[in-house]
Design brief:
410 residues, Rossmann fold, 2 domains, 13% strand
């Protein structure tokens, strides 16, 4: 039995963090109904077609976030559509949304009104900047609210003079989804004790600050914030990136410097540096980090990155990694053992998908299946909610509900 078998979830959301939280619930057996406007559907359906994203004939972004879900195309702008939603709410356990507060009011998604229909409901929401305060109504994506506003974009620049770098697609949304999932599960645990649901929420801003927490805590404590220096003149040559013979980069993060310094010199074939006064102590190595980097640069170019990684790890105690290119990641065998990938059906061009990032011992996740076409399961969802075929026909004729194709898109 799946952990969340029998749990009914309404996904009334778009653009990644909120729907991805519903996806995690579906991975563990929850029945998730994806509610979309009947005219164009969730705007995320066309995200993969944007010119700055990887080009593919497959709708990979939609497939990833909407897998396992049942598709209901429902016009919440109409009173009839809101009446359908409210009937679904009466039978649901969780409703997830990221619509702005003003939009929720127009679409019949006010949390207290829904809780009055079903006190056991867990109403879960994601916002850009929080749901109170002078900026509660501001629109935000992860690039703006999670990265830019939290200080992450600033502190992760290549150096203090480098321009900001845009994050990858949904890079802040995916971890925010995990936060919302945790909030929902916590509320469900409380419901087991009290019988009552309630409202849980998070924001991209709060999650960005949480991701940047160590540096923000330093700022709270009044610490001097020191920006990164350029790679060729770092504060430490022993925590840096080095280009290798195969034009790949090797990342070294050497914390136990006193212990490992002489071992590193042996591996690199530089025993003479052990008696070089410029590098005799940690302080002198810091003072001469640029020169040491120049020496290391010439040495690392002698072998491939994977060979350097092998030699350093064989020497013991070194934390290193070849910097993977994105095209390497799908072929990473260790990532399979780590639970990053899972076999799936109908995912468009691949028999695998990226799995939600945790496991429960003894629990088997649901095998992922393809994302729904717009309105694909509208009739089935309404039937299961108690509507007769005649009543559904009326809703379809009025344009309140749209029926899509019944076969999943391949």
């Amino acid at each position: 039995m799946s952990v969340f078998e029998g749990l009914k979830v309404l996904d009334v959301a778009s653009y990644v963090a909120a729907p991805a939280a519903a996806t995690i619930l579906s991975d563990f057996g929850a029945e998730v109904i994806k509610i979309e406007p009947p005219d164009a559907g969730d705007g995320y359906r066309v995200m993969s077609a944007l010119p700055n994203l990887p080009k593919s004939e497959h709708n990979y972004a939609w497939d990833l976030v909407s897998r396992n879900k049942l598709g209901l195309a429902l016009d919440l702008r109409s009173s009839s559509g809101q009446a359908v939603l409210h009937r679904l709410v009466e039978q649901a356990d969780v409703l997830i949304t990221n619509y702005p507060i003003a939009v929720r009011t127009r679409l019949g998604l006010e949390p207290q009104a829904l809780l009055s229909l079903n006190p056991r409901l867990v109403f879960a929401s994601v916002s850009g900047y929080g749901e109170t305060g002078p900026e509660a109504d501001r629109l935000g994506f992860d690039a703006t609210a999670y990265f830019a506003r939290s200080g992450l974009t600033d502190i992760t620049r290549a150096d203090e003079h480098a321009p900001p770098t845009a994050p990858a697609m949904a890079q802040g949304d995916q971890p925010t989804a995990s936060t919302l999932f945790g909030a929902i599960v916590t509320a469900l645990y409380r419901r087991e004790r009290t019988g009552l649901g309630g409202v849980v929420s998070t924001s991209l801003l709060a999650n960005g600050i949480w991701a940047n927490a160590a540096m923000v805590q330093a700022a709270l404590a009044g610490a001097e914030i020191r920006y990164r220096l350029a790679r060729h003149k770092p504060r430490s040559a022993l925590s840096n990136f080095y280009r290798c013979a195969d034009d790949r980069w090797l990342s070294i993060a050497m914390v136990s410097e006193i212990k490992l310094w002489p071992v590193l010199l042996q591996v690199l074939g530089l025993p003479e540096l052990g008696s070089d006064t410029r590098f005799a102590t940690m302080e002198s190595r810091r003072n001469n980090a640029q020169k040491l980097t120049e020496i290391f640069d010439s040495v690392f170019l002698r072998q491939d990155a994977t060979e350097w990684q092998r030699q350093l790890e064989a020497a013991g105690g070194f934390t290193v990694s070849v910097v993977a290119r994105l095209s390497d990641v799908p072929h990473d065998k260790q990532a399979v053992h780590a639970g990053a990938f899972v076999e799936a059906d109908g995912m468009g061009g691949t028999p695998f998908t990226v799995d939600s990032p945790f496991r429960i011992d003894g629990v088997k996740k649901v095998r992922p299946r393809g994302a729904p076409a717009l309105g694909q399961h509208s009739r089935d969802v309404l039937r299961c909610s108690g509507y007769t075929d005649a009543e559904i026909d009326v809703l379809v004729q009025k344009g309140v509900v749209m029926e899509g194709i019944r076969e999943p898109r391949q």
